[in-house]
Amino acid sequence: MPRRSGDACHRRQGGPEEGPGDHPEGSRRVSAARRRIVETLEYPELDAAVVWSLVADPDRLAEWFPLRPVGDRRTVEPGVGTTFRVARWWRVPALGSRVVEVVGWRAGEAYRCRVDGMLGCVEFRVRVAPRPAGAGTSVTLEVRSAARTPLVGAVLRGAWRRRLRAALRRIPRVLGG
Question: Could you name the CATH architecture of 29-174?
């Protein structure tokens, strides 16, 4: 019997550009609960390098996203293989923390990370792109979830969509834009 705790989540190592067809489990039953949520927001007044410095720094995660780093606070150079622990803002860190692993990285452009939780695996992708002719920056947040069941997946998708929109609206406030 296959392991249910991680087999739905473990993907081939690679860059953030991997698509849904790259999933090694292919058409397994668990992949039926996998869904993708994508939210994009453009910031005409913000520079891409400034936005990247915010969204790519694990120590600044709590400033714009509803998770906060916990535990060992040593500075780690971000990149593939980097791991750190996070907890939701309102949870006691010892009770509700999860390990985040960076599994894809293109410096200054995009990264992909994975969190394996009790209800399934969640994969986050963050892309920062400058707009043409210096017209600001576009930020895309994407969540792919491999929930244990379709019902759990549906509940999680609704919650994640709201969180992604709130996180995108928070970025210009954090950067003073």
Answer: 2-Layer Sandwich (3.30)
